[in-house]
Design a protein that fits this description.
α1 packs parallel to α6 and α4 runs parallel beside α5. This protein is of the alpha/beta class. It has one domain: Rossmann fold, CATH 3.40.50. It contains six helices and five strands. The longest helix has 24 residues. The protein is globular and about 50 Å long. The mean pLDDT is 97. It comes from marine sediment metagenome. This is SIS domain-containing protein. GO terms for molecular function: carbohydrate derivative binding.
Length: 171
């Protein structure tokens, strides 16, 4: 975020929900109020300027149902996240791939595209890290193997990271 990048997030099932949840924590106040100041208050006026909050750009790649279904029908559903990363990602952005096993093929493909674009890559997985861990610049492996337990441990990880980012950019 220091250089103005955007965070893209992807995952399947419960991990897709985590991607959506995490993006929500970044796009509005998490623990702290993020009031707009200066030029934004002037440009937006008092009604909008006092209701909107500072945001960290985050896009969950799970929110494109028309593209996802069309691409799955016309090309291959395993490549939907990869196509979205290719279309939306830029050098200086980052991709977080979330998978309890680290082996979600569509997330692995997205991480490969992100690396080719010069994006930063982060894997949030279970203990083994799976195929994703060696592809990621940063691999966060929670100490569990069972899907439900891994998902439970992912929540405090991304809440902590959200809090750290909020403190860095809005304190």
């Amino acid at each position: 975020y220091c250089s103005g990048g955007t965070l893209l997030l992807c995952g399947n099932g419960g991990s897709a929900s985590d991607a959506e949840h995490w993006a929500g924590e970044l796009l509005k106040g998490f623990r702290r109020n993020r009031p707009l100041t200066g030029q934004w208050l002037e440009r937006l006026g008092p009604e909008l300027g006092t209701k909107l909050q500072g945001a960290l750009p985050a896009i969950p790649l799970t929110g494109f149902p028309a593209l996802s279904s069309a691409y799955g029908n016309d090309v291959d559903s395993d490549y939907v996240f990869a196509q979205l990363v290719f279309g939306l990602g830029r050098a200086g952005d980052a991709l977080v791939g979330i998978s309890t096993s680290g082996g979600a093929g569509n997330v692995v493909l997205a991480m490969k595209v992100a690396a080719a674009l010069g994006m930063r890559t982060v894997a949030l997985t279970g203990r083994s890290g799976g195929e994703m861990a060696p592809l990621a610049e940063v691999s966060i492996r929670v100490p569990a193997d069972e899907t439900d337990r891994v998902q439970e441990l992912h929540l405090p990880v991304y809440h902590t990271l959200s809090l750290m980012l909020e403190e860095e950019f809005f304190a």
